[in-house]
Design brief:
By secondary structure, the chain is mostly helical. It is built from three helices and four strands.
């Protein structure tokens, strides 16, 4: 037979045994008082589980952080190359008599 589950109103906070528990963390399944929990992404989490989740997000975000910067740098190099190519071809279309006329 299964042991009967203790109702929430009789649970105590895992961090503060003298306080009644107000919620259970869905990640670690421990009970906590109002001061020990916080709402994150429509869920109530304890501080340690919230820290673990934020650390996972930061490491995943950190892995791909350089990709947009490298893509923008490559795009900048291509744009500069095209601008200089067009400008150089424009200078080549100027007739040589323009330079030797001594109009300066």
């Amino acid at each position: 037979m299964k042991a009967a589950a203790i109702p929430l109103r009789q649970q105590r906070c895992s961090n503060h045994p003298q306080r009644e528990a107000s919620a259970r963390c869905p990640e670690c399944t421990h009970y906590f008082c109002r001061e020990c929990i916080t709402e994150h992404d429509d869920r109530v989490l304890c501080a340690s589980c919230l820290a673990k989740l934020s650390l996972k997000k930061e490491t995943a975000r950190h892995k791909w952080a350089l990709v947009p910067r490298l893509a923008l740098a490559l795009l900048a190099v291509v744009v500069i190359y095209i601008v200089f190519l067009v400008f150089g071809n424009l200078l080549l279309t100027i007739p040589s008599q323009f330079h030797s006329a001594g109009g300066w």
